[in-house]
Structure formats: structure tokens, C-alpha cells
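stage 2 :: seqdesign
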């Protein structure tokens, strides 16, 4: 009897592990189909493009590299982070910068969440300042994501809050001011495998704002007010910036939102 119970438990464990693996593969496949479709539709020959940060962008760079090799496509890639720069270099793509390419045809980037009004939360990887600079130089900001990033309202699926990049000396007064003005709470993002806070590519701190999900915020107004606070470098709120979003869905289709 004991043997049969043990055998059943072993089979259940294997089945659970397999299902978790399939879920992970499903998310990666969703990211991939969204990324491939966006690159195929928006990247044109002889242009400069912004290359974003995050796990979904890995697939965009993969597709871009394929097109360069297969079609002889010539594009200059402007990175939004150290990670993006490494992806560009490792895939043999042409690396550029905003000094020589101040105007971009498009920027392809990921997002942590997208609401029904095309407001984005970005910065889960701590790269929102450079991401927003590159996006602002692009004729079209194209967002690629899997279905878990698709929400009607911000905070519906992404629970880590809105990232705010701040100068280190001011993080405490900024934290208190935002909490007093808008509610919610802010936490200093701590580093992984390193003692102390997370440091951005620009040598700043990140505060993650857990806003009050019960409130209806005017995100455009909130973003402008946040940027007026001395010491706030940039926010992870991208308002009125995205041209189109591609969501890779569970069923293998790609949902387009604009």
C-alpha cells in the first residue's frame, strides 16, 4: 500500500513539473511570436532603430539578426541599457548611439504592463530613463509583450508597482512626499546577490511605488507631478508614447492594440 501511494505521489510530482515547464514555454513562445511580428512589420531597410530591454526583446533581436543575415537588411541599433547593448553586439548587429542617430524610425521595447488606454508601466529591469530617452527619439514606439502584461487598469496584473528612478541623496524625502500626495507606499529596490540597493545604469536608486489600486488616477497628470519633484530623475510611467502593442496570446495568435 505504501509503495502504491509513493508511486502516485511521484507521478503527480512529475506531472506538476511538466505542466509548469509547459507554462513557461508557453510564455516564451507568446513573447517570441509578438516580437517576430513586430520586427517583421516595423523594421525597414536603412534605418536606425531603438532596441529595448528585457526578456521579450531578446526574441526581437533574434528575429532582427535573422533578417539581417537572410535579407541583407541594414539597420543601426541604439540600445536602451547595458543589456540591450550586449544583445546587439553578441548578435552581430550594428551598434549606434543617439549622437550620430538622434532620429529613430522606431523603437521596439517590452513593458511590464499595458492598460486599456495604452499607458505603460516600464522599468521592472531598472532601465526606464534610457528607455524613455530612446523612445522619445523614435517616430514610433512599438511594444512587445506576452498576454500576462495585458490589463484593463494598471495594477491589475503587475503587482510590483511603478518604478521611479531617483538620485540617492533624495530618496527618503521623495518617498515621503509621494506617499503624502498620492497615497500608497514606496520601497527602495534592493539588489540581488549584492548587499544594498539596486543601482541603475545611471548610478541612481529605484523606488517602487505601490499605488492605491482602488483610486482612479489621471496617469498623465500624476506623471507630470512626479517629474516636478526635485531628485526624481524619471518614472516608469509611459503615457501617450506607444504607437502599437503586440501581445502574444495563449492560443498562438497575436493581439494588436493601438
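stage 2 :: out
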Amino acid at each position: 500500500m505504501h509503495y502504491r501511494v509513493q508511486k502516485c505521489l511521484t507521478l503527480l510530482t512529475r506531472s506538476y513539473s511538466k505542466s509548469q515547464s509547459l507554462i513557461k514555454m508557453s510564455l516564451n513562445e507568446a513573447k517570441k511570436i509578438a516580437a517576430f511580428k513586430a520586427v517583421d512589420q516595423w523594421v525597414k531597410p536603412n534605418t536606425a532603430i531603438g532596441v529595448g530591454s528585457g526578456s521579450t526583446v531578446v526574441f526581437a533581436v533574434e528575429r532582427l539578426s535573422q533578417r539581417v543575415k537572410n535579407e541583407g537588411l541594414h539597420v543601426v541599433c541604439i540600445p536602451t541599457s547595458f543589456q540591450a547593448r550586449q544583445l546587439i553586439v553578441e548578435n552581430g548587429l550594428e551598434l549606434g548611439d543617439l549622437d550620430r542617430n538622434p532620429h529613430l524610425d522606431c523603437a521596439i521595447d517590452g513593458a511590464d504592463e499595458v492598460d486599456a488606454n495604452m499607458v505603460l508601466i516600464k522599468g521592472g529591469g531598472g532601465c526606464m530613463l534610457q528607455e524613455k530617452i530612446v523612445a522619445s527619439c523614435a517616430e514610433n514606439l512599438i511594444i512587445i509583450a506576452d498576454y500576462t502584461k495585458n490589463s484593463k487598469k494598471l495594477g491589475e496584473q503587475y503587482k510590483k508597482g511603478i518604478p521611479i528612478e531617483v538620485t540617492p541623496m533624495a530618496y527618503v524625502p521623495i518617498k515621503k512626499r509621494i506617499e503624502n500626495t498620492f497615497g500608497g507606499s514606496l520601497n527602495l529596490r534592493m539588489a540581488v546577490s549584492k548587499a544594498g540597493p539596486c543601482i541603475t545604469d545611471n548610478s541612481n536608486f529605484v523606488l517602487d511605488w505601490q499605488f492605491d489600486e482602488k483610486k482612479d488616477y489621471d496617469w498623465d497628470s500624476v506623471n507630470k507631478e512626479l517629474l516636478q519633484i526635485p531628485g526624481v530623475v524619471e518614472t516608469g510611467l509611459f503615457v501617450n508614447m506607444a504607437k502599437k502593442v503586440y501581445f502574444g496570446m495563449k492560443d498562438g495568435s497575436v493581439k494588436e492594440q493601438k
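stage 3 :: structure notes
- The mean pLDDT is 92.
- The radius of gyration is 20 Å.
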